[in-house]
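ARCHIVE CARD
CATEGORY: sequence design from structure
SOURCE FIELD: tokenized fold
FIELD CONTENT:
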């Protein structure tokens, strides 16, 4: 069961958090070289979009997993960790984007290591928040969770189910 939780949380983070943060970093790159006023406006816009994507993901998962009123306390803790992780990754990617034109190769590697460590720490927090929620799910809800997170993992990595793949001539 621990393996399933780690896989599920990993799928969530890589598909939800990291994907959002990567898009945020790419979208922020042009803003980093723009004048300060427009840069802070662009950063605010990107932060709002990232937060909206996190909220969309939270709403989607809440619906998909059919969270009951009794499960709301565990769900809220999990959702709060998702939000905090999204903010943390956004902050770190923003710092990386702002520094990438002036930092040395060594500084770049150190910053990437910091980002990777933060991701690992965030994942640990996400797993810790997800485990009591997962344990509270009914067998039907656990199947929904397993399927939902598995699908997101495949979508994130560009894989499609064999039935979704076009037939080869």
């Amino acid at each position: 069961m621990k393996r399933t939780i780690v896989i599920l949380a990993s799928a969530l983070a890589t598909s939800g958090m990291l994907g959002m943060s990567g898009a945020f970093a790419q979208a922020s790159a042009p803003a980093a070289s723009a004048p300060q006023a427009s840069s802070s406006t662009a950063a605010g816009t990107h932060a709002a979009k990232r937060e909206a994507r996190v909220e969309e993901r939270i709403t989607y998962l809440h619906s998909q997993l059919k969270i009951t009123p009794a499960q709301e306390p565990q769900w809220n803790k999990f959702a709060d960790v998702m939000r905090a992780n999204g903010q943390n990754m956004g902050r770190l990617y923003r710092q990386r984007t702002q520094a990438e034109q002036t930092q040395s190769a060594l500084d770049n590697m150190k910053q990437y290591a910091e980002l990777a460590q933060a991701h690992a720490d965030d994942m640990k927090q996400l797993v810790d928040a997800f485990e009591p929620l997962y344990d509270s799910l009914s067998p039907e809800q656990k199947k929904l969770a397993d399927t939902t997170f598995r699908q997101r993992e495949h979508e994130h990595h560009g894989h499609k189910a064999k039935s979704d793949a076009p037939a080869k001539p």
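CARD ANNOTATION: The chain has a mean pLDDT of 75. Residues 105-136 form the longest helix (32 residues).
SHELF: design records, drawer C
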